[in-house]
């Protein structure tokens, strides 16, 4: 059975905000899921950045 394309829970990509500002090569990205009905705004989580070796804020990108 095929999934509906407009489901409530969907995949989102989280990208580090501090890493972008430093200008270092590479990116820190995570893939997560969120319920689009309960949280329509963009997701913001603290995750570990392997390149900077510390916990930073990761924001949802499109």
Estimate the global geometry from the Cα principal axes: elongated
Which class of secondary structure composition applies to the elements?
Answer: mainly beta
Give me the strand/helix succession.
EHEEE
Within CATH, the superfamily carries the name: Ribosomal protein L33
Helix content: under 10%
Ends distance = 27 Å
CATH arch. level architecture? Single Sheet
- Note the main sheet: 4 strands, antiparallel
Summed up, the domain count is 1
- Record field, number of beta strands: 4
Q: What Rg is obtained from the alpha carbons, in whole angstroms?
A: 14 Å
Trace the largest sheet across and list its strands. Answer: 2-1-4-3
Q: Layout of helices and strands, plus pairs?
A:
Layout: E1 9-16, H1 17-22, E2 29-35, E3 44-49, E4 54-61
Description:
With 62 residues, this protein is mostly beta strands. It has a single domain, classed as Rubrerythrin, domain 2 (Single Sheet). It contains one helix and four strands; from the N terminus they run βαβββ. It has one helix spanning 17-22, and strands spanning 9-16, 29-35, 44-49, 54-61. The chain has a four-stranded antiparallel sheet with strand order 2-1-4-3. It is elongated, with a radius of gyration of 14 Å.
Keywords:
10% helix, 47% strand, Rubrerythrin, domain 2, elongated, 62 residues, single chain
Brief summary of the model shown:
It is built from 1 helix and 4 strands; from the N terminus they run βαβββ. The chain has 62 residues and is mainly beta. The model has no long low-confidence stretch (mean pLDDT 89).
């Amino acid at each position: 059975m095929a999934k509906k394309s407009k489901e409530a829970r969907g995949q989102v990509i989280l990208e580090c905000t501090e890493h972008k500002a430093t200008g270092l090569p590479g990116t820190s990205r995570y893939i997560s899921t969120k319920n689009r009905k309960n949280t329509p705004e963009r997701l913001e989580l603290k995750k570990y950045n392997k390149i900077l070796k510390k916990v930073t804020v990761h924001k949802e990108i499109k």
